[in-house]
Amino acid sequence: MSREVYYDVIRKPVITEKSTIASENNQVVFKVAPDANKTIIKEAVEALFDVKVKAVNTLVRKGKAKRFRGVAGKQNDEKKAVVTLEDGHSIDVTTGL
Question: What CATH number does domain 3-88 carry, 3.30.70.330, 2.60.40.420, 3.40.50.970, 3.50.30.50?
Answer without folding.
Answer: 3.30.70.330
